[in-house]
Amino acid sequence: MNRKPSMSLRESPARRLFVRMRESLLPSVLLALFLGIALPASSLAQSGANASPAPAEMSPENLQRFRKLAEELRCLVCQNQTLADSDAGLAIDLRRQVETLMSRGMDDAQIKDYLVERYGDFVLYRPPVKGSTLLLWFGPFALLLTGIIAWIVVQRRSRLRGSEAATPDANARQRARDLLG
Would residue 54 count as lying in a domain? Predict the structure, then answer.
């Protein structure tokens, strides 16, 4: 007797849905777990023995100047962190470079100019408004304005279509009268 059940557990729609969900979600869950575990570990490894918040042998005036400069400069590898806030290896190197430049007698503007020449305007936490940074400064506002204009256009078109659909033409009225009797 070769009796085949109409739908086994393996072939059920619920089982197929579960298998598809498991296959599509598993990589995402593993990636999230990896990022949650690996990124903090890598940042801890970077912030180990190399971290030096500020040089101890500086005078209080120079220390204050150093901290102010570190707040005005951006870490080149971190997202939206100042040089003072970052514990990345490159940030530590840049802080040491700022110390060296200060010890050579350079003022704040000269230090910033030196770093901008070497790394570009991105090294400044607040880059100047100029031709190459216009998109950086005004891009978000342009995107917001474009979104508002698009939203207004869509709303107006929606209202126009809604009002056209609400008022039937003469042929549609006649057909409705004929159907009703």
Answer: no
